Amino acid sequence: MQPPPRKVKESQQVKLVFSEQLSKLQTKQHQDTELLEEIRSFSKHRAAIEKEYGQALQRLAVQYQKRDWQRGNTDAITS
């Protein structure tokens, strides 16, 4: 007659362990979601900075290309 109460106790123990594991998994999932959101935000800001940097480099290159071209023409005219 004693085994049935023991089974009930074991099932309650399993339920408790399952509940604890589920809670830990949910916490881990929440932390992972926050980390991914931070990575997404970082990547988005980095991409914007790199785009701005690339555009500035392109403007600089165009300015120097014009200067070299103009300098080449003035050198040819004065020679």
UniProtKB/TrEMBL annotation:
<dbReference type="GO" id="GO:0007274">
    <property type="term" value="P:neuromuscular synaptic transmission"/>
</dbReference>
<dbReference type="InterPro" id="IPR027267">
    <property type="entry name" value="AH/BAR_dom_sf"/>
</dbReference>
<dbReference type="Pfam" id="PF00611">
    <property type="entry name" value="FCH"/>
</dbReference>
<keyword id="KW-0446">Lipid-binding</keyword>
<dbReference type="GO" id="GO:0031594">
    <property type="term" value="C:neuromuscular junction"/>
</dbReference>
<dbReference type="GO" id="GO:0030833">
    <property type="term" value="P:regulation of actin filament polymerization"/>
</dbReference>
<dbReference type="InterPro" id="IPR001060">
    <property type="entry name" value="FCH_dom"/>
</dbReference>
<dbReference type="GO" id="GO:0008289">
    <property type="term" value="F:lipid binding"/>
</dbReference>
<protein>
    <submittedName>
        <fullName>F-BAR and double SH3 domains protein 1</fullName>
    </submittedName>
</protein>
<dbReference type="GO" id="GO:0055037">
    <property type="term" value="C:recycling endosome"/>
</dbReference>
<feature type="domain" description="FCH">
    <location>
        <begin position="21"/>
        <end position="68"/>
    </location>
</feature>
